[in-house]
Amino acid sequence: MKKKLWLIAFAFLLIGLLVACGSDSEADDDAGDENNENNESNEETDSEASGTLTISGSSAMQPLVAAAAEQFMADNPEADIQVNAGGSGTGLSEVSEDSVDIGNSDVFAEEKDGIPADELTDHKVAVVGMAPVVHPDTGITDISKEDLIKVFTGEITNWSELGGNDQEIVLVNRPESSGTRATFEKFGIDGNTPAEGVTEDSSNTVKQIVSETEGAIGYLAFSYFTGDDVTPLSLDGVEANDENVQSGDYPIWAYQHSYTKGEPTGLAKEFLEYLMSDEIQEGLVPEQGYIASTKMEVERDAEGNQTEK
Amino acid sequence: MKTISAAENTAKQRLIKTSGKNDRGELRGKIIISIAAFIIILATISITVFLAVKGLQAFVADGVNPITFLTSTNWNPTDDGSSQLGAFPFIFGSLAVTLLSALIAAPIGIGGAIFMTEIAPSWGRKVLQPVIELLVGIPSVVYGFIGLSVLVPFIRDHFPGIGYSLIAGVIVLSVMILPTITSISTDAMASLPDHLRDGSYALGATRWQTIRKVLMPAVMPSLWTAIILGMARAFGEALAVQMVIGNVRDLPSSIFDTTATLTSIITLNMGHTTYGSPENNALWSMGLILLLISFIFIMIVRFLSARRRV
């Protein structure tokens, strides 16, 4: 008899706990909704933004967005913005499933399989330029696009063939699903598939490998060109720098996208407007090694067609 | 086995039978422990089911041929639907690093165990035990980092190739699984009854003969268990291997050549792929393969434990 009573009591306790947990989170949700509503109604009166916002996606964009979120939260203590990094694919998947408010990606949503790109709204927050980089002792500082393709497809295997030192070429790639690789393949080597080589995901590791391995060539975002560890190559005589990207002369660059499902509302809208404001575009964006998207003189669509702005 | 069950019997007899108020405590304990057990079982089953559902998606929904997936060396996922998904190089890479690292770590680990239990039981254990516990505590990313900044340049300077290689992964993994193998072997050797040693010495056997002809055969199934558990750890390790192996999609032509493992490909690509895309599904299938091979490892361990004689 007593045993049964205990069991029943325990069962009730468990159910009670579950209900308590459930109602707790509901209460939280309600509070969140109210905040968002407040937010929208307050917009006209230009008061402080509040509520919670979750952002996930591209790890390349995470530092920029997280820094911007920190500044935004300092100005608006009522707002709570969480920025996670998980990769562009994760960001796009989660934003289309509505599990986050903003999904960051370094490729167009149209380029990824299984993403309902027409449901997502694109916000081009910044531009990042990339360049092929080589070990300092290769003796090469400029390469033609034709030769770059030959190097990456494995047709040229020694730097001496390009007038450099007698060193075997060692390719350093990114994983085939990475946005950096997609950009480099598309605009750097005109859609050719690179030959096999060491594959690393993190830019810092790629930089380390290229700087330590004789004859190595990889590709990096401009923000990693600090010090003399690696030598960035100019392409067809065009130097890899911000000005040449802005004018459209240098081809290897990509947008950093922030996607929302449908048009952004409430806090998401305010935060995206903040990202596009001069304060961020002229402050944090260049500070973090990106190029302000507002300064671009050319623009590009998902197919990669470049037009004058 | 018999001695253990006898011990259990006497323990049961010695157990003081409680009645009345104390019964409640008895039941409460039973419920808490049953719930704990239930949660463990539930977690294992749900992970297995989840991984099976996700992992079979590539074959069911995307029409990837399982035979091609397991045997083809052509891994070329694209977003336009013409993906070629052959995971054989990664399966081979995983098995190669696992077997080779066991090959290095097993003799060293078992040798260390013999040293600690037979040769220098007092000071050997005092010195080696903390060293081994320390090795367990080092996070895998640190092993990977040391491999990347010490081992890879060393291999690059002294052997053919660019340093990133199968052998670099093997060496990093051997160090990582060494503590597992050593500590399990030590416990097994220490639990051997003394009458085995005494009997052997009484017959005039030397210490080396005793270890080789008497102790080793008796403890062999436990040593195999130690090795298999070490291999299971090596097989599942992702980060440290990924940092030194090069992650190239081709079969290695020598141990100084670059290659990739199942785990390194999963960690490199998972975040970049979108949920439900063929490549993402293929990564889940690779996860399923990892789980199945781990199950095989566990089954071997269970089979060996059943054969244990001492």
TrEMBL record, chain A:
Regions that span the bilayer: none
Database matches in NCBIfam families: ptsS_2
Cited Pfam families: PBP_like_2
Alphabetically ordered keywords of this record: Cell membrane, Lipoprotein, Membrane, Palmitate, Phosphate transport, Signal, Transport
Name of the molecule in the record: Phosphate-binding protein
Family from the record: Belongs to the PstS family.
GO cellular component entries: plasma membrane
Biased segments, Acidic residues type: 25-47
Superkingdom, natural source: Bacteria
Quaternary context: The complex is composed of two ATP-binding proteins (PstB), two transmembrane proteins (PstC and PstA) and a solute-binding protein (PstS).
Stated role: Involved in the system for phosphate transport across the cytoplasmic membrane. Part of the ABC transporter complex PstSACB involved in phosphate import.
MF (Gene Ontology): phosphate ion binding
GO annotation terms (biological process): phosphate ion transport
Major place of residence: membrane
Membrane association type: Lipid-anchor
Cellular location(s): Cell membrane
Span list, region Disordered: 25-54
UniProtKB/TrEMBL annotation, chain B:
Subcellular location: Cell membrane
Example GO biological process: phosphate ion transport
Family from the record: Belongs to the binding-protein-dependent transport system permease family. CysTW subfamily.
Source species: Lentibacillus halodurans
Domain annotation ABC transmembrane type-1: ranges: 91-301
TM segment ranges: 31-53, 87-110, 131-155, 161-181, 214-235, 282-304
CDD domains for this protein: TM_PBP2 (cd06261)
Predominant localisation class: membrane
Domain of life: Bacteria
UniProt membrane topology term: Multi-pass membrane protein
Protein function: Part of the binding-protein-dependent transport system for phosphate; probably responsible for the translocation of the substrate across the membrane.
InterPro entries: MetI-like, MetI-like_sf, Phosphate_PstC, Phosphate_Transport_Permease
Keywords, in A-Z order: Cell membrane, Membrane, Phosphate transport, Transmembrane, Transmembrane helix, Transport
Name of the featured protein: Phosphate transport system permease protein
SUPFAM superfamilies from the UniProt entry: MetI-like
Molecular functions (GO terms): phosphate transmembrane transporter activity
Any one annotated GO CC term: plasma membrane
